[in-house]
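Input.
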Amino acid sequence: MQAVQLTEATGPDGVRLVDLPEPDADGLVVVVDLHAAGVSFPDLLQTTASYQVVRPLPSVLGVEGAGTVRTAPAGSGLSPGQRVAVLATGGAWQQTVAVDPKSVFPLPDSVSLTAGAGFLMNYLTVHFALDERARYRAGETVLVHGAAGGVGVAALQVAAALGLETIAVVSTEEKAAVAKANRATHTVAVEGFKDRVLELTGGRGVDIVLDPVGGDRFTDSLRSLAPNGRVVVLGFTGGEIPTVKVNRLLLKNISALGAGWGEYVRTFPGYTAQQWAQLEPLLRSGALQIPEPTVHPMTHAAEALRSLAHRSATGKVALALRP
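Output.
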């Protein structure tokens, strides 16, 4: 089978298309022939050994994908030919994977394999941030930074499915159009976003801020919160890790929270099943929507990673693993 391996920790140029043997099927795992795999910011960090979990080289990148079941253990509830999304901790940028049945999620017919390939990481992360960390309440307003990126689009879609109003922070008119197409209630420019947010909310501020960007906007995110508001840190795609003067948290009884979904799942491995039980009915009904990603062929994996590094990508990025 073909796979994309990271052979050198030199950035996107360190990835290579290689031939590998197919994974062994021992009767306890689900073997899935993947159609496509998601490309995420942690994959980019992996290419420079700057992610918190460093894989030994050479290593197949990627964690999420979608395809069809080839074989499944008895009692798994899965059957050959079934369309599924998977979490493949051993690497998803390969044509066939063998994974634990608990890491396989049947896709509704309404979700394509390319869209499903980029669903799990971002949507489960955002759901975790809103539900488990921020403890959202009906009728609240969510401010989303980086709203045209993969995590941002997922945040807008999940918030809409949960009945929450959203304010999308974007850097260009093109990205504002992406946010609006993904159910943002309002869009605001990065420059001066705090004042515009306060104007939109009648001076009250927002209840929740989802921030996958970091950088120098963090203080103004705190200032944008309503009393009892929460900023949830999802990552630092902007490159800079912000600091906060904690006295600001006292002023309006606000909170700054971290949302490390991957670490949470490692600690509580049954949590993804709980999330799927909540999100799958929303997917099936159409209340939760997954837009099609920007798809690159396997041969252009480095280009896909560079689109994240240069922040030129809008929405989710994926790799096509088969013709």
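The chain has a mean pLDDT of 94.
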